[in-house]
C-alpha cells in the first residue's frame, strides 16, 4: 500500500525528514481514521507540505498504534517519541494541547528517505481536509 502524509507547512517538518532529524510521523485522532489499521512495515510513504506537491518518499519500517488514550498516556507517548517525530526533545504547548484529548495515536517509523520528482495528487474522494491518504497504487491519484 502507498500512503501520502500531508504535513503542516509552517512546522517545517519535511525539511527535518530530509535531514534525518525526523524519523517517524505521529498522527493523533478522536476517532479511528486512516492510517489506523491500514499502515504496515514495507509500505511506501510519501510526504508533502500542504499546498505543495509530493516531493519525498520513504519506506515504512515499524508501526505503533495506541487506543483508549487518556491525557496522561498521550503525554507519555508524545514525550517518548518527540525526538524522532519533531527532531526536538521539547514539545511545544500547542502540540501538547492538541494530543491531550485524542483517543487514538499511530506512529509510523520510516527510513530510506529520498527526494523525488515532485508530483501533485487528486484528493477527490478523500475529503477536502484529509491529511493522510491510503491507496493501493500511487499512480492512481497522480496528476
UniProtKB/TrEMBL annotation:
Signal peptide (residue range): none
InterPro entries, per the entry: ASCH_domain (IPR007374), PUA-like_sf (IPR015947)
Domain of life (superkingdom): Bacteria
Pfam families attached to this UniProt entry: ASCH
Domain ASCH per the UniProt entry, residue ranges: 13-75
Name of the protein this chain belongs to: ASCH domain-containing protein
Species this protein is from: bacterium (Candidatus Gribaldobacteria) CG10_big_fil_rev_8_21_14_0_10_41_12
